[in-house]
Amino acid sequence: MKELEYPFDSEYILKKSKQIRRRLLESGADFVRKKIAVLGGSTTHDIIRVLELFLLDRGIQPEFYESEYAQYWQDVMFDNPRLVEFEPDLIYIHTSSRNIMKYPTPGTNEEEVGFMLEEQFGYFAVMWDKAIADYHCPVVQNNFEYPFYRLLGNREAVFPQGRISFLNRLNESFYQYAREHDDFYINDINYISAAYGLDKWADPFYWHMYKYAMCMQAIPEFAYNLSNIIKAIFGKNKKSLVLDLDNTLWGGVVGDDGVENLEIGQETSLGQVYAEFQDYIKAQKDIGVMLNVNSKNEPENAILGLNHPDGILRPDDFLLIKANWEPKSSNMEAIAEELGILPDSLVFVDDNLAERDIVSTQVPGVAAPDIGTPEQYIRVLDHAGFFEVTNLSEDDRRRSEMYKANMARARQQRSFGDYREYLRSLEMRASIGAFEPIHMARIAQLTNKSNQFNLTTRRYTQSDIERFAASDDYITRYGRLEDKFGDNGVVTVVIGRKDIAAKALHLDLWLMSCRVLKRDMEYAMLDAMVHACRACGLETMFGYYYPTAKNAMVRDFYETMGFEKTGETKEGGTVWRFAVTDDYTDRNTVIAVNV
Amino acid sequence: MDREEIFVKLNEVFRDVFDDDSITVTDATTADDIEEWDSLEHINLLAAVEQEFGVKFNMGQVVSMKNVGEMADIIAGQLGA
Fold it and tell me: Is the domain B3-79 a CATH 1.10.1200.10 member?
């Protein structure tokens, strides 16, 4: 919804929240439901009210648990039955520097300050440990914002007795905990309060009147930042930037002004602005964002502009360069299709309001933010949080490379008459095995992101995944695929739940990344599942297909795999049966599998 | 801005905040008259009123304000009407 896209009007959102909520719920969008426990060290009523809007807007319909006032610690430590019964999918702990139990004073000696830090950190850590152990769900924790006054002035940050020094060290210990715990996330309110303006943020009126940790007007920006983390955890990040060229990546119009007259590089102020923006865009590749171009230009002019000697982006940085005179909305659709991703994973960056309008109305789901003037581009895209990082997996860093390799494969495919001959020419090698610690982050990421080749679309957190891996009641298999063009990484995940009494295995999850469609990897996985079943005496596998708006491509998957349909669910899903026999012969013949 | 104009604007703010077009506020309206107007919604309501009129209530005013009439008086006072 336009009103909830960054940059938004906070006061409008606060005032109209009820009406906005009603419209979101009436939109008929396909929401995923999540239970979120908000455990507060201060009042959380309006935080929940606004957070709900941003989550709904990202396709997540939250059900909230709200702790009694300032009972965050007690709720976890003493197993509040209401919280236990709630079974949260995510726990958010809303504390602030108002919740610090004891600060050092100018007379505290350094050693004592160290003890105080340990004590304060320990108070939180014991709660996190327990929350993680009891609820097996992601935990999001605020760090501490700076206080609004400084007794020691600028020395507050220098002397260990200063509150700013104390909070910085405490924050660092929180970050260390986050580095050591995969499903634990920091909500950086220290950054958000600074970006908002600490004096306004910390307005004591709201603390003393209502026990709010920040002023009312800051709540939308605060809640938006928090919603970025939550939507990223639940797999709702965007995947790709689609960029206009003229007056977006450089100043001027390459076709009219000529490449030598473009504003880019260190010669002019505006040129510097565009150079910094190009640098920011190029860095997106390192966090796995795929870059593409959608520009009204002659193709050769687009390439000329991108080869400008003072530019930073190069044609090679982009997967697809659509420089033509087609409507930009058609180019967006073509880009989504060629990359094998959905339009709602695209962010369209264009200085022209009319183009943004056409794209956002013609291609629903595409984000087309109002990026403002060139010097604002970076701030708007950055604060919008489209690509909020939760874990940096090796796959993220190499995503563009992998898609490039895919395009090379596509070219090779055209030179082969016979598809199987082509598959053999790829010299594919797969590793298939039970979930291993080094792959957990990627497996969790896949279960939360895969929409199209996903039979049941069950979303699991990393904690869930680790639990299945450790349990004897489940058979888990991941598959990693390499070929002569490169390593695709972990691309497919299957989770089967054993029913020992019936000697059966229920396939709760079967998904695959669309980047390896039609490579026979699904047959290699079927072979692996059959072998696993036989090894533990299971005689039948049951497959389930639950239709969603996005997974029609696998409607007949189990039929193709040789399963037999045994029934339908009332929601339109189908149930399939596969007899595991001793004379099973492997279906995959083109991939060398390493078990 | 006279008192009547203040009430027209106040009425709009109340309708927005409570998402209820049937609300009509008077001097005597209190939290008891509007179902959703509880102590938590009160905070948001005051913030919306402050923004609409470009005024700021201090703590003393927030604590002592008894009905919409008194709210309008404070607004009128700050606007110098």
Answer: yes
